[in-house]
Specification:
single chain
Length: 156
Amino acid sequence: MTMAALQWGFEFALALLLAATLWYAIRLERRLGVLRRDNAALEALVAGFNEATARAEASTARLRAAAEGAGRQVTEQVEGAARLRDDLLFLLERGEQLADRLDGAVREARGAVSERGLPSRANLAPMPTPPAAEADAPRVRSQAERDLLQALRAAR
């Protein structure tokens, strides 16, 4: 009987080991299933990341092209502003020359008037201009004239 009891003991131990192996196999299968699902999610994540990277590269190229276009426009505007500045400096110099000539002519005229014994301008009452005449003939100035007057005022 000892042999039969020993055989029964080995079979019982073998059954316990088979149960434990089955239990570990089931746990392993579940973990492999989770790993497969996570692998699919990881593949989807990598695909999304690749797509986002491609869109970012395309956006960067468009942004670079837009920046280059804006740079060209700014350069053109700066060049135009430099040309306008040169024109305004020329007009300012011409305006100063004309103002100097006009000032000289006024001084000569005042000198001639005081030599003849006519009353000076300081002694004359200012002549009012009729309001109807001012309203009837308003002076229309071009943009260049307005710019020149503004530059002359700023220079003084």
